[in-house]
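ascorbate ferrireductase (transmembrane): structure, please.
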Amino acid sequence: MALTAEPESRLYRSLRAAAGAAAHLVALGFPTAVAVLARPGSSLFSWHPLLMALAFSFLMTEALLIFSPEISLLRSFSRKVKVRVHWALQLLALLCALLGLGIITYNKHLNAKGHFVTWHGLTGLLTVLYATGQCAGGVLLLYPKLMKNWTLAKRKLYHATSGLVGYLLGCASLMLGMCSQWFTISVTGISWYLAMLCPLLTSLVIMNQVSNAYLYRKRSQH
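Here you go.
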């Protein structure tokens, strides 16, 4: 049995490493493709898809992957450094998201169009508001004295769980954006399906990372 379990363990680790490498490539490749497609600067609207792709595909993905023991780009650094980089990336993601939301809102105002009347618009607004609250909640980890009744382990668990929910909301917003008229006219055929797979892949990798961290914490308590 031991001889059988070991190859499976190695295979599992190899698959996780391959999925992690793909997640890093997708996290950068997707906003790069959006930049080529949107041609930022060609119009006011062109900045919206780029900023949102940067926020939820690149910055937020890398901010979460930084804590992965296998695929983090900062594996050799201390946890203190990882936490600081995580915070910096999350703040940049939030700034991009807020700017992207402000630009699309102002663009709709200029063109006399309704605000938040589509699923993409409503989900995007909810995601940005949630991300703002998530960043505010992260302050409780930096300054544990603000909530003395909660243990540090419990705060970390809640922050990771709520962060996963926020990330999935961001991925859902990106996918709904790819169903918009602008995107479906610009991207067709197999390219559209490949684009839809990008947030699906990164969300699966992040969910696996969070679930493994939760299981590890449960085992360490017994």
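Notes: The CA atoms of residues 91 and 135 lie 7 Å apart.
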